[in-house]
């Protein structure tokens, strides 16, 4: 049974359109014909989740499997969450509106260390016990064949990197790429369901699939390491690797604007640049290029199918996809008449050249983002960025010469071996770039800088390092003082408390499960970091203290897990033994590790590092078990140790996709090899988009807005019309100027939540069409809740519908919050009609008050019908009122005001329906 959530998704909640589901290209499969029913549950609001490429790809792949059905769910806003709890309505999947407990399996994306609190919120809203133990206990015996709750699993970068802090909450984890792994899981679940396997046996079967980690079959040792508690599961769990398939990226055109409101196609997966701080680069090896012709085909098909006017090419390092200029130019040429723009995520500044500049933007030139990461050459060598000052200048200068006046730069502070001179080097680098990119008659080059705090990540060479919050604050203050003297630069800093908390959880062990749960109970969530950071930090701090782990969090704050900063006297005394771990003099800083401290770190796993201080001066201090050692990412831990040593010597490692092998251990049978495709020739540029401003025909369309579409805002409706016209291939005319827009004009906006069967829109075409053909093409691409009633051709010189508006006819459903008979309702209506004056105080946008005679704006008023409920009397009233755009409007709520005046009773608006808009001559 579908839960009655429709009554909760109303216009009084924020952005109700985010809960509608059933978007363009959503997949609908028979519930009864499906053997296994999935929900991909994204623990963020819809606008974030629905534009996540991995979410879209896995949704499409699962629905492509026979006998498998996949729906979606997202974190609801606080307003809807409150409604769900007040009415005891469980969280639902957006397509079917079914409760999440009706499904067989829920898969969460865990891509951020502090994001697990949102997962707990969703489980609680769904009425599902939070931990696998509670779910087991709620059924009584572990071996019961049927469980009242679906399997709960997590995937994503954070889940793959270190699942231990979250092990209490999930039945299993899916490690690595999911394109092949999830269908394999589905087959095992289908067999298990048909065979009536117990939950334990089902999980044991799942544990045999490479890439599936079932934490209840593993125990944590005292040193924080994790080992099997039974012989029939693998000691180490393999990360899965799949080949990207661009065709699965096409899908889901949301009704509301999302954070990435465009088509996104993956062109390359994995990165072998070897930046020593970068966890995604280490967790996605080897690098795999997508065939250029498959990328072009997916983009062309995707743009036709979705109607987007923008697309993005996605990779950890798009510039390392050698076919990028050729692919971008081919698509630009093919779609040159459709006003399409290309955007790229942050890219390698050393590969940015005129070829890439030529394919970016379009008539809407987007921003550029580069990530130098550090302000000095020495620091860029330590982190293995592979970027010289000359390459940095060449890339930025190319962008400036190609017309960009604003560039976003990412830097990091707190990197291993960093000195104050390196920190000041960030400001010096920015100032130098501005000086070099200066020209007469040009605007000064503006920079938008994001200065983030380095947070050590598992499975990277810098996983053994940390920096104190005091140091971070010191470095931020240095930069704030420097940038006060530099114009045309905006600087954003990451809060040091967030960085410390990410570090604490990200490198934690299983003992942190109680911290995550308590933080959620105290109100910590992703949204709270942005709405009230102090409150969120307080919740996490209290949770840590109540778990008795505050002393370990202080170690993070103090930066005590630090193999780089050893006191000068200790280095001198143990110079010979310390050669491996002690930086050279150029890396030394004034900050040291107190010799009285053991080499400790984060939660219990890091207690494994609580050794005699003498271990600090030996290689064995890097060999102590870590909580994530049982996750086989393919990279040899010994290689990470060696790369850490290379960092100490500021030695760089080449990119193995283009130069020699770095012997990291990934390439082989389990993970494959780098796939680098030779780029095709760059096609000749066919010219920029030239907007066709020809106005050969003008059509006026009368349409409705019904059902779920009533919850789509006016701005979202305008975007929907643009996409519908593109999908239908209609020859729409464009405006001129720097930002050409399609000539589609809606007569007026409709209040959110109101329905209508009398809306009007004008379309201007470059080529005349038969009216019936236009209507058929338009209606075919429209949602069913936006019916097309009538289309007629009008004179090219006729006024726009918005200029001709005179009156509007409404049907409003009103409740009197007191008993009232039909005769009373009719008497109130007659009293209003008999009056010549009904004054209303109106507040203008500027804050001024003015008196308006509403009676002058009311032309017809009629009682259509009345009915009674237990506590109120309800009527439907029809009225025609002024609707002139210069401000002479009679709004539905003003009818309620008039009723209150004549009846001395309170009224409530239940529904607004616009029957028609009436145009003047």
Describe this structure in words.
- With 921 residues, this protein is α/β, with parallel strands linked by helices.
- Helix content is 31%, strand content 19%.
- The protein contains 29 helices and 30 strands.
- Strands 20, 21, 22, 23, 24, 27, 28, 29 and 30 form a nine-stranded mixed beta sheet that branches.
- Helix 4 (116-125) crosses helix 18 (513-521) and helix 7 (181-195) packs antiparallel against helix 8.
List the helices and strands and how they pair.
Layout: E1 36-42, H1 46-49, H2 53-63, E2 68-74, H3 78-86, E3 105-109, H4 116-125, H5 132-137, E4 151-155, H6 157-161, E5 172-174, H7 181-195, H8 199-207, E6 212-213, E7 218-220, E8 226-228, E9 237-238, E10 263-266, E11 268-269, H9 279-283, E12 288-289, H10 292-306, E13 310-314, H11 324-334, E14 341-343, H12 354-359, E15 368-373, H13 377-382, H14 389-401, E16 406-413, H15 420-436, E17 446-453, H16 469-483, E18 489-493, H17 496-506, H18 513-521, H19 526-531, H20 533-546, H21 550-557, H22 568-573, H23 604-607, E19 631-632, H24 637-648, E20 697-705, H25 714-728, E21 744-746, E22 755-765, H26 771-781, E23 788-794, H27 801-804, E24 805-816, H28 822-834, E25 839-843, E26 849-853, E27 858-868, E28 873-884, E29 888-889, H29 892-903, E30 907-919
Parallel strand pairs: 1-2, 1-3, 3-4, 4-5, 9-19, 10-13, 13-14, 15-16, 16-17, 17-18, 22-30
Antiparallel strand pairs: 5-6, 7-8, 11-12, 20-22, 20-23, 21-22, 24-28, 24-30, 25-26, 27-28, 28-29
Helix pairs in contact: 4-18, 7-8, 10-11, 10-25, 15-16, 17-21, 18-20, 25-26, 28-29
């Amino acid at each position: 049974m579908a839960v009655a959530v429709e009554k909760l998704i109303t216009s009084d909640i924020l952005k109700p359109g985010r809960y509608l589901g059933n978007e363009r290209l959503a997949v609908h499969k028979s519930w009864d014909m499906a053997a296994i029913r999935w929900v991909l549950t994204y623990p963020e609001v819809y606008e974030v989740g629905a534009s996540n490429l991995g979410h879209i790809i896995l949704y499409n792949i699962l629905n492509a499997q026979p006998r498998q059905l996949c729906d979606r769910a997202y974190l609801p806003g606080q307003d809807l969450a409150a409604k769900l709890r007040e009415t005891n309505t469980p969280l639902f999947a957006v397509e079917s509106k079914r409760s999440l407990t009706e499904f067989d399996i829920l898969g969460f994306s865990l891509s951020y260390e502090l994001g697990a609190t949102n997962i707990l919120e969703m489980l609680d809203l769904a009425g599902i016990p939070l931990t696998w133990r509670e779910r087991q206990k709620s059924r009584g015996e572990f071996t019961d064949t049927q469980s009242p709750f679906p399997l709960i699993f997590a995937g994503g970068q954070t889940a793959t990197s270190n699942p231990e802090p979250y092990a209490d909450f999930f039945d299993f984890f899916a490690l690595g790429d999911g394109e092949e792994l999830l269908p394999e899981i589905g087959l095992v679940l289908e067999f298990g369901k048909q065979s009536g396997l117990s939950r334990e046996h089902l999980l044991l079967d799942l544990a045999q699939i490479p890439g599936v980690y079932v934490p209840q079959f593993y125990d944590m040792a005292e040193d924080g390491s994790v080992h099997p508690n039974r012989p029939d599961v693998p000691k180490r769990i393999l990360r899965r690797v799949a080949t990207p398939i661009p065709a699965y990226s096409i899908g889901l055109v949301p009704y509301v604007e999302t954070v990435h409101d465009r088509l996104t196609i993956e062109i390359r997966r994995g990165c072998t640049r070897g930046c020593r701080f970068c966890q995604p680069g280490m967790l996605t090896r080897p690098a795999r290029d997508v065939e250029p012709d498959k990328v072009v085909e997916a983009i062309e098909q995707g743009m036709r199918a979705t109607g987007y006017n923008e697309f993005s090419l996605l990779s950890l390092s798009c510039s390392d996809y050698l076919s990028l200029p050729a692919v971008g130019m081919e698509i630009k040429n093919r779609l040159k008449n459709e006003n399409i723009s290309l955007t790229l995520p942050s890219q390698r500044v050393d590969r940015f050249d005129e070829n890439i500049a030529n394919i970016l933007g379009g008539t809407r030139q987007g921003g550029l983002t580069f990530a130098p990461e550090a302000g000095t050459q020495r620091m860029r060598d330590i982190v293995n960025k592979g970027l010289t000052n000359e390459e940095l200048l060449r890339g930025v200068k190319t962008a400036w010469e190609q017309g960009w006046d604003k560039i976003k730069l990412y830097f990091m502070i707190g990197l291993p071996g960093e000195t104050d001179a390196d920190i000041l080097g960030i400001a010096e680098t920015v100032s130098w770039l501005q000086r070099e990119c200066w020209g007469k008659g040009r605007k000064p080059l503006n920079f938008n800088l994001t200065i983030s705090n380095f947070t050590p990540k598992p499975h990277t060479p810098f996983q053994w390092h940390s920096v104190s919050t005091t140091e971070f604050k010191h470095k931020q203050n240095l930069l704030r003082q420097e940038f006060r003297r530099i114009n045309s630069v905006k600087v954003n800093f990451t809060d040091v408390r967030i960085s410390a908390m990410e570090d604490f959880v990200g490198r934690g062990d299983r003992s942190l499960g109680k911290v995550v749960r308590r933080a959620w109970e105290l109100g910590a969530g992703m949204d709270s970091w942005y709405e009230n950071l102090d409150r969120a930090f307080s919740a996490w701090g209290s949770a840590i203290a109540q778990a008795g782990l505050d002393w370990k969090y202080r170690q993070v704050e103090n930066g005590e897990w630090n193999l780089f900063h050893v006191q000068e006297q200790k280095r001198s005394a143990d110079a010979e033994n310390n050669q491996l771990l002690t930086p050279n003099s150029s890396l030394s800083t004034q900050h040291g590790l107190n010799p009285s401290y053991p080499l400790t770190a984060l939660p219990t796993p890091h207690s494994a590092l609580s050794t005699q201080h003498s271990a600090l001066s030996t290689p064995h201090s890097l060999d102590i078990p870590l909580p994530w050692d049982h996750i086989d990412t393919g990279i040899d831990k010994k290689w990470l140790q060696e790369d850490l040593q290379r960092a100490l010597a500021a030695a760089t490692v080449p990119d193995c996709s283009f130069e020699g092998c770095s012997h990291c251990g990934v390439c082989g049978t389990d993970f494959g090899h780098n796939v680098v495709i030779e780029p095709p020739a760059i096609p000749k540029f066919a010219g920029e988009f030239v907007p066709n401003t020809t106005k050969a025909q003008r059509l006026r369309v009368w349409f409705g807005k019904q059902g779920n579409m009533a919850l789509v805002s006016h701005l979202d409706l305008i975007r929907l019309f643009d996409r519908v016209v593109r999908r239908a291939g209609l020859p729409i005319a464009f405006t001129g100027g720097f930002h050409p827009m399609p000539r589609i004009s809606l007569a007026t906006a409709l209040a959110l939540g109101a329905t209508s069967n009398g809306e009007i829109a004008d379309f201007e075409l470059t080529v005349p069409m038969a009216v019936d053909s236009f209507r058929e093409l338009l209606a075919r691409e429209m949602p069913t809740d936006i019916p097309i009633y009538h289309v007629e051709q009008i004179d090219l010189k006729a006024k726009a519908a918005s200029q001709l508006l005179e009156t509007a006819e409404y049907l409003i459903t009103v409740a009197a919050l007191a008993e009232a008979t039909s005769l009373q309702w009719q008497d109130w209506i007659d009293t209003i009609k008999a009056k010549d004056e009904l004054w209303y105080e109106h507040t203008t946008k500027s804050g001024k008050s003015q008196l308006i005679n509403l009676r002058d704006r009311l032309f017809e008023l009629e009682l259509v019908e009345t009915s009674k409920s237990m506590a109120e009397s309800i009527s439907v009233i029809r009225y025609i009122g002024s609707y002139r755009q210069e401000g002479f409007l009679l709004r539905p709520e003003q009818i309620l005001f008039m009723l209150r005046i004549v009846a001395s009773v309170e009224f409530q608006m239940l529904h607004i329906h616009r029957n028609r808009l009436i145009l003047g001559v």
